[in-house]
Every structure is written in C-alpha cells, then in structure tokens.
Protein: rRNA adenine N(6)-methyltransferase
Organism: Grus americana
Amino acid sequence: RFIACPKLARTVQRCLQGGASPGPQPVLLECAPGPGVLTRTLLNAGVRVVALESNSVFLPNLQSLENSLDGQLKVIYGDFFRLDPLVTGTVKPPAVCSDKLFETMGVAAVPWRADVPVKIFGILPQKKERNTLWRLLFALYECSSIYRYGRVELNIFISEKEYKV
C-alpha cells in the first residue's frame, strides 16, 4: 500500500515533478505514505508535501519528520480513500471531509482554467478498488469533493486486474 523502494520513490518523484512550470509548485497530497520513503524523496527534491496517513503505526515517524522541517511537510491523520463519507453529522477519523482537508492544507478553490492547485499521489487499496474509482469519477463529473477546488492532478496506482478491466 506504500512505496518502500528508494529507486521507485525517485522514479515517482521525477514523474510527479515532470513538466513543472516555473513559479510556485502545487502542494502534493501523499495518501498513505507509510514509512515515508517517497515522502523523504519528495522533500529532498524541494516539494511541499501533505501526508495523509490512516495507519497510526506510521504517524509518530512522520510527525517527527514534520517537526524537524520548517513547514515543508504537514502530517494529517486521515484516509483519502474514505474521503467525504456519505453520513450526516460528525465525521470520525480516519474518514475526512475534503473541505476540512483542503482548509488544513491551505489550498483555496481556483477556477478550472487556472493551474492545478494540488497534486495527489496514492496507491489504491485493492479492497473495494472499483467502488473507490467510481466514487472519484462521479465526484469529477459533479465537480464535488476534491474537484470543487479546481483541476486536481490525481496520480493513483491501481491493480493490474482493474487496469485491464
């Protein structure tokens, strides 16, 4: 569910930064960073990262890294793949609402013609993989959830099985 190989982390970092235009770079939201191999690679490349981690085992290490940096990393306890649950009332972590998430990240909504305000990277969990993909597609069609903030660049690894379907 996370990248553990430094060589793969460097490849992903280059792909995420490829074609970057001059000027301020968008925030990168890393979903389920795990031990933080990709996170460190991105930080070393000068990327501003928001790590959204739902596994409490990895949180202390990521928070320690956050404390050693000067605002380049923000760690949030939450699960991107449980974003905007269809419940009324208070949302209990690790579920998270996109409006609260983007507010915490410091990302404001921009018109769709503007540059990408945020890039998202994650590895889709295989449990309910297709349902999650459909939820992301419907949110895009409705311009809701993360797409309320403009054109979001979504970089998600999916299983070979779903890719072939």
